[in-house]
Amino acid sequence: MVADYRGEGLLPGQGSGGGIGAYLLNRAKPHLPPWLGVGAAGVAGALGNWRWGESAPAGVGLTLASVALTGVTWWVGRNTSAQRRLHSAITVAAGSAWVTGACLAGPLAGPLDDLYLMGGPVVALSWNVRMILRTPDGEASGQGGDKGLLEKIGLARAQIGTAKVEPNRVTAPIALAAGEQTNDDVTKALGLLASALDLPASAVRYQPDPDSVRRGELVIVPEDMLAEFVEYDGPSNLGGSIADPLLLGRYDDGAPMHLWLPGDPEADRNGTHVLIAGGSGSGKGDTALNLQTEILSRSDVLLWLSDPKMFQDFRPLLPGIDWAAEGGTPTEVMVEALQEVIPARTRWLGQHSYRQWLPQAAQQQNDPQHSCRPDGTACGCAGMPFLVAWMEEAASTLRALGDDAFTGISQEARSAGVSLIVSLQRPSYDQMSTSTRAALPSVIALGCDPRDEGFSLPDRVLDAGAHPGAWGNRKPGYCYLVSTGVPEDRYASPGRTRAFTHRSVSLMEVVAAWAQRNGATADPITAGAAASIAGNAYSGRPVPGDGHGAPHAALAAVDPEDDDMDDAPRHDPEDEQIDPEEELPAAQTGDDAPIFGEGTGRKPKGEEARRLLAEALAEFEENGQMIIGPKDLSDWCDRHNLSRPWVSKKLAEAAAEGRLAPTNTTGRWRIVPSLTPA
Questions:
Q1: Which end of the chain offers a freer environment for a tag, N or C, measured as fewer CB atoms within 10 Å?
Q2: Residues 202 and 105 placed together within one structural domain of the fold
Q3: Do 102 and 247 belong to one domain?
């Protein structure tokens, strides 16, 4: 019978009366409605008795009205707290029962007057106490704080469980109305919830329960801890294994952001490839440096890097990188080498009873359970380090080699202990094939154009509240991490990578020097397979003190020559018999039209043709350019006055003889090294 109310007290001096009396009256005003209700009940009982005191039908009507009013009160209070609903129903039931009795028998009959004098003040005081104890934003509006908030965003029927409060993170389970709401309703309301709490959109997330369509967890991070700048301070686990987590940065609640590359059967975690996506200025460079310094600080991993930007960001790390290739042909060679390395590594792992790469695979194989010998005794084979193939600014490589250049690699590399990391600005379907994108299960999504969010993150992560498009390039280093090993409730949690400044260069150089001296070297299988494709283009990590690199031990063991380079001739041996004073030879057929590409020029035959082509291929091989095409021979043809059709024909003949092998790109050939390591 007592309606909901909110009192608005006045300060001293406000109102019409002024003085202490007016102040006390204004302070008492919020507490008067329950007492007015008690007084109204007494007047209603007296007037009802005067009107219906002798009427039996009125008694029936009043009784039914009392029951109906109590039921309506209970029904209307269904969206309020359980305590308030019960309190309201008891108050209305007690008041309406007394009024009914007073109307029929009289307000002074029997115990009715005593009940009124004792029960009325108790009921009124109970509401006064309730008002004093309640919070302004809670039941003052007739609802609990959570219920009022949910009603504002259209989820009034939802129920919130006991919240788990952590430093700068609140997680609350939520159950939606059965048959009326689904998890999609919460997803659509996240923006309204962030508005109601006056927080950025990225601070409110929802993690649906995979086993229920109406249950999940609401995560609220009230303070953006990522706004604080954190500079790179060195590797997190120097000398550890690549199987240990790699530290990228931290989440918005201060927790560390970790990434795993190899799989772990005990943790039920598969190996993974990684896509790094973000617009220009979003912080891809710092993200790459965080990962690369972590990789180079581990003792059982090799890093191969392709960078069309000529190592602009990564030059301090070059001494620790096992193979660094610039864009264009060097990257083309690396991709071809990977296609040979992967099956070779898979074969070795299978022979040594590894279903996937494990840290013990990088050690010397002294365990009989991992022996390649038929008799089961320990084989003692050299271990095989993990391999990370990093394709920086991969859009350039994909344009040059085709959008499916990494498809075979990405689909087969994980079983070979190889992780492919692809970094580009916009992983749209016109730049990367859907097969390759599907084979890159992990993603580090930095700020991007809002229209590109779907290219970077799965729909379920976007539905949970992730919005990298909200950052663009205004918050470098802000990112979302979706990867195996990372809890799913973290997928929609923003993080920030550590920043690299000019002060970080010395730390990068220290990490590279450590990797150069203490890092893993390529095993004979990996080194041999790479050199069988790349030839001199792959020589392994530079030797300390020598910036030009030196062959791996696995390659040096099969070098055909071991002579001192100081004794090598300073000129081509074929030029020894040439007399510099001798007249030039007479012009030959075709010398008058040396323009390349017009089909004219000399067309040598027989032994001279074979010698010229062999010299050209040997020259390219010596320079490490193992992928060639007719356009690469233009300068060479100009020097020898040879026609392009003749060169194309000879390349085809060399391919038939096994000196060249076709590549995935039409018109491009791979030089088969003349001396392939065993």
A1: C
A2: no
A3: no
- Residues with Cβ within 8 Å of residue 565, at least 6 apart in sequence: none
pLDDT tens digits for 298-329? 999 999 999 998 899 999 999 999 999 988 88
Q: Are residues 264 and 134 in the same domain?
A: no
Q: How many CA atoms lie within 13 A of 479 on its CB side?
A: 34
306's tokens: 């392709």
658 annotated binding-site participant: no
CA distance 241 to 363: 11
Give the end of a domain, one of 141, 170, 191.
141
- Which of 501-515, 540-554, 566-580, 582-596 ranks highest by mean pLDDT? 501-515
Element (H, E) at 285: helix 284-296
Same domain, yes or no, for 516 and 648?
Answer: no
The pLDDT tens digits of the residues spanning 544-580 come to 654 444 444 444 443 434 333 334 343 444 444 445 4
Sequence-distant (6+) residues with CB within 8 A of 276 are 284, 287, 288, 421, 422, 423, 424, 443, 444, 446
Residue 3 lies in a domain: no
Q: For residue 565, what pLDDT is reported?
A: 33
Same domain, 465 and 347: yes
Q: What is the DSSP letter of 600?
A: -
Q: Are residues 387 and 456 in the same domain?
A: yes
Distance of alpha carbon 571 from alpha carbon 553, whole angstroms: 29
- Does a structural domain hold residue 14? no
With a cut of 50, say whether residue 2 has pLDDT above it. no
Q: At a CB cut-off of 8 Å and minimum separation 6, what does 235 contact?
A: 247, 293, 294, 296, 297, 511
285 labelled binding-site residue: yes
For residue 249, the cross-strand partners are 257, 497
Domain that holds residue 83: 19-141
The annotation status of 17 as a binding-site residue, yes or no, is no
The string of pLDDT tens digits covering residues 344-388 is 999 999 999 999 999 999 999 999 999 999 998 999 999 999 999
In-domain check, residue 626: yes
Task: Specify if 305 maps to a domain.
Answer: yes
Residue 394 tokens read as 């991969």
Q: Which helix (H) or strand (E) holds 387?
A: strand 386-391
631 has pLDDT over 80: no
Check pLDDT > 90 for residue 625. no
Sheet holding 660-662, edge to edge: 627-628, 669-671, 660-662
pLDDT tens digits for range 143-192? 444 556 777 787 878 888 888 888 778 888 999 888 888 988 888 888 88
Say which range, 286-290, 350-354, 450-454, 583-587, has the weakest mean pLDDT: 583-587
Model's pTM, two decimal places? 0.66
User: Hey, how many other C-beta atoms are within 10 angstroms of the C-beta on 15?
Assistant: 14
Q: Is 648 annotated as a binding residue?
A: no
Domain final residue pick, 122, 141, 160: 141
Q: Known binder of ligand: residue 61?
A: no
The single residue listed with the structure tokens 């002060």 is 503
**CATH code where residue 181 lies:** 3.30.980.40
Answer yes or no: is 279 a known binding residue.
yes
Q: How far apart are CA 64 and CA 45, in angstroms?
A: 16
Does the annotation flag 281 for ligand binding? yes
Q: Tell me, yes or no, whether 123 and 163 share the same domain.
A: no
Q: Is 282 among the annotated ligand-binding positions?
A: yes
Question: How many structural domains comprise the chain?
Answer: 4
Please tell me the predicted confidence (pLDDT) of residue 600: 54
Element (H, E) at 338: helix 329-351
Rounded Cα distance between 281 and 608, Å, is 55
